[in-house]
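Worked Example 4.2. Consider the chain below.
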Amino acid sequence: LVASEAMSLPQWWAARMPLYYGWVVVAASAACILCACPGQSYGVAQFIEYIMRDCGISRITVGFVWSAVLFLCSLLLPFAGRLCDKYGPRRVLLCAIGPYVGLLLLMSTIDSLATFVVVFFCMRMIGPGVLVLIGSTTSNHWFDRRRGRAAAVLSIGVGLETLYPSYALALIDAAGWRAAFRWMALSVGAVLAVVAVLLRDSPEREGVQGDSHDDAADDEEAKVDAAHVGATIREALTYPVFWLCMLSGALAAFFWTGINLYSVSVFHERGLDEQMVSEAFIVTTAVSLIASSGAGVYADTTARKERLFAMSMLSGVLANLSLVQMTSRWGAWAFGFFYGCFTGAINTAIMVVYAAHYGRAHLGAISGLATGVAQICGGAGPLMYGVVNSLTGSYSSIFYLFMGSMLGFTLLLLYPHSLPPYSALDTSPRRRERPVALTTVKDESGEGDSTALLSENAETSETPV
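Applying the procedure from the previous section yields the following structure tokens:
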């Protein structure tokens, strides 16, 4: 009995349940990301007309504030990632729950531009910033062999965010926009309280086996402490493949933020109405779930996981081509299909590639940097669409620009770039190298020691990897 009381929750679960606890972490991570919906752009969009009216804010001012807040939050994301690496995602979550719920309550009291700017900035930083970062990275610490499948399941769970606008509008219709924020504060607080209990940092910290411990291919030489091995941001930036993946994610954010905001206008330009927009995005949602699953399975069978970004970029080329040629219902459905392939592949790639290539030791900081760059581009996307349409009277030019850029990234990502040595920690069947030793070397930046991984064909010298 005493031993049972001393068990952590994952240990208790492992002793009594056949299901690996990592899947509980995936569910908790999805719930954590969904709780960020009120701070997302599409979340605040349900309230913005009421806020503008009651606070006396012009549409131009809102647009400027929106872009400025997104830019500033993106600059702080790498710092939030470092906190997750240092203290663990769960501790950061525990510190974020109270302020986030409080900010949702404060949103119901704003009455001026100043209060809107301050509260919106803080809510945006904690919600779509910290909560999404925690939710998208924590499951990577629990999965190695089945990381792709875990990312696919996480994407499916996060797909429930499409229900949020209907939920928000129902609250507004029933009680008004200020009361709606108060109700959301209560519901989000209750969900995050459960998430804080279930979410755990890593199997190593909880004293349980990871998901690859039963892999017959993993002999004693390959069993390294993966939680403490990984590239720093400076190391990651030395690999061309990191830049290609990060910039592909940024280009994707450029594309999807603009098309999501101006979809009705784009379809009107092609002679199609709002009903066609709805049908296209229904197809997108269904295909995205299937594409996420397929991309997850593929990720678990290849060491070249950066090709997930290549798949998404190629799908983006076809989606933009469909937009240029779209004149009928079939064209709208074709766009929905390719756009679903694009979103499904890119979401899985973002969740899988950085952990697989650069290890888990500094995953928060690396993912925070990549996410921050994507958010900057995402904030500029709608502006770029608007400028191009104002100058040319059409959106076609920007779609051709996206086609050329995405095709270029597809070809570059398919080139067999050298992978970081930490990719040897990947437990997929086709891995090319297997880790056999760890050595501690001095970080050239002077920040301290970093753990380097030596593979079978590496020279056992003191040269930093």
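Residues 71 and 376 are 5 Å apart (CA to CA). Confidence is low (pLDDT under 50) at residues 1-5, 214-224, 424-465. Compare this with Example 4.1 before moving on.
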